[in-house]
Design goal:
With about 160 residues, the protein is an all-alpha fold. Helices cover about 70% and strands about 0% of the residues. It has one domain (about 15-160).
Length: about 160
């Protein structure tokens, strides 16, 4: 079978080690999160069927002993968002993960379109959840990791065909 990667400086056309490592990590990550989000969709649908006051009472019962009131107020804000839009959020995250997986498969096979799909999913995945979530919930680590992984794959772009 002919290699699907462009030759490196020494003429080797085997899959670059970095793509192998990132690909394996990506397959593990997307597989895990497809399961989590797949289970999360019906869970969020069930949560939305409950009255908001009942959901807040459950949170209060389980967390009031361990959190100070100001942090509990932040948790209530998250609960309100999840109750109102949790299914939409999980569907966005599920779709982003599927698109990332398609991109990783393309990269694993040495295709430039794989990078384009992966990069689109990573960059869109930073912003699309905020169709549902308030911007104040944007973290630093998640977007940083998304951009770092995209940059790591991009470092191998010249090897893709």
């Amino acid at each position: 079978m002919a290699s699907q990667f462009a030759p490196d400086a020494s003429g080797s056309t085997k899959r670059p080690d970095l793509i192998s490592i990132l690909g394996i990590l990506g397959f593990i990550n997307t597989g895990l999160f497809l399961i989590i989000y797949g289970l999360g969709i019906p869970m969020m649908a069930g949560l939305q069927q409950m009255p908001l006051e009942e959901v807040q009472a459950l949170v209060d019962e389980s967390m009031s002993m361990s959190l100070p009131q100001e942090q509990l107020d932040e948790v209530y804000g998250i609960v309100d968002v999840m109750h109102a839009s949790g299914v939409a959020l999980i569907l966005i995250l599920f779709a982003r993960t599927v698109v990332r997986l398609v991109g990783i498969i393309g990269l694993w096979k040495g295709r430039r379109w794989g990078f384009m799909v992966y990069a689109l999913a990573q960059i869109a995945g930073i912003f699309l959840p905020h169709l549902v979530l308030p911007w104040s919930m944007m973290g630093f680590f998640g977007p940083f990791m998304a951009l770092a992984m995209t940059a790591a794959y991009y470092s191998q772009y010249k090897r893709l065909t």
